[in-house]
Amino acid sequence: MTALVFALQPEQVCLAMDTLVIGADDRMPMSFQRKFLSVPESDLVVAGTGHAGFINGWFQHLQANLHGATIDDLNEETPRIFRASVSAEGGLSGLTATIYHFGYSVRECRYAGYAYRSEHGFCSDRLQYVLGYKPVVSVTPIDGIRFPDFLIDIILEQQRQDRLLPITERVGIGGEIEFVVMSNRSIHVETAHRFSSYEAESIHIEQRAEA
What we know:
alpha+beta; 5-stranded antiparallel β-sheet; Glutamine Phosphoribosylpyrophosphate, subunit 1, domain 1; 4 helices
C-alpha cells in the first residue's frame, strides 16, 4: 500500500507519494521503490494504490507498449485491459487496486486525471479538479498553499495516523516522499522529504535481505 496525495488543476498537476514497501504477511519494511511511472513523451504520470503486483504489471505493460499514447488514448482501452488481466489471473487474491492516470489532454488542451478502481470493475472515473489523498486524513484548509510543503504535511499526518493502527491494519508509510509537478507540457520529479523513520526502515530492510 502507499500514501498518495495529488492536487489536480487544469493547468498543473502536483503529486506526492512515499517509497516504503512492506511485506504482505508481517507488514514490516521490505524495500524502497518509486510508486509512480513518469512518461514525459506522453505527458503522462501513472500511480497506483493497493495490489503491488497488479500495479507493477501495468507499469511494465506501459513501458513496453505505450508508444506515445496519450491519456485520452489510454482512457478508451484501459478498463477493458484491466478487466481482461484480472480475469486471466483469476482475481486479485482478495486485494483491491486503484490505478490513477494524470496527463495532458490534447483534446481538451488541459490536464486531466482518471481513476480505475477494482471495486468498480475498473470503470473510468474522471477526477474532479480538487485535492485528493489516500489514506483519508483531516486536512485543514489554508491560504497561500505552497508546494511541495503542503503535500508533505499531509503525508506526514497520514504516516502518524497509520502508526496508531494495529500493525495488521497499517498501510505502511515511510522511506522518502517523491514529488511530481506536471505543467507546461513537462514533468519534474524530485525527492522532497526523508521520513525520520528512514534509517530504522533501512536497517530492517538490510537485515531482511541477509536472513
